[in-house]
Amino acid sequence: MSAEAAALGEVYRRAATDGELLEEGVEQLLRLLQPGPGAVFCDLGSGRGEALLHVAARGRYRGCIGVELLEERHSTAVGSLAAAVGDGLLPSPVRLVRGDLTELGAWVERERAEADGAEAPRRWSGEARDGEDGEAVPLRDVSHVFACSVCYDDVLLRSMATALGDVRLFPRFQLLVSLRALPSQPHLVQVGEVQLVTSWNGGATARVYVPTDLLERPDDALPLPALSQLLCSGGVCTLPLGLQWPRDSIVPLPRL
């Protein structure tokens, strides 16, 4: 463990444990997600950027965002991004940010305030992207999220789930793929599992989560490719009990 990681609190020291999604694992992830051109992919805990840049190189999406706390890893990712852009390898724009995952919701609020012309909102440090000729894709537009979270603390995981499941903060969020099961919380519900190749396991089990209010969201906010793979078989689809049904879909029964 680096000196920077060792100097963090206990929650962050565990989260800083090294490990990454390998190239084959990224391909497995993309086969599940099948993101369209309007997708914004986000890697929460993007490390040195290998997985994020591989996603950005594999398709033309609206954007790819990586969030990493450790300066050493973030700086390495920034260098890799510059090299990939210089070689013309990235059809999708990439944004790298050094920041604390427990502040996801607060950062979205600050970005919104900045867009509205509020005075000097505080920003996360160490931001880089693959070009300065256009506006960076805002974090609130994220649709598909991956977290190499096998060592994340429950406090960190709950904070992530709370922010991602809030439609006011992340109105386009569709699903989270997490390498550690989320602790009990009311914001995201598990819809399945997928095996991914990682640096420590050739078949690590990742859990797939969607917002509990997914059925109340617009049709274009539904992760249909992933849901069809995880929930449907032989033309029959089974929805998890944890999903909240829209109010107008409930049929009241007469009193007996």
From TrEMBL:
Stretches assigned to coiled coil: none
Residue ranges annotated for the DOT1 domain, each copy included: 18-74
Molecular function terms from GO: histone H3K79 methyltransferase activity
A Pfam family recorded for this sequence: DOT1
Descriptive protein name: DOT1 domain-containing protein
Organism: Emiliania huxleyi (strain CCMP1516)
Phylogenetic classification of the source organism: Eukaryota, Haptista, Haptophyta, Prymnesiophyceae, Isochrysidales
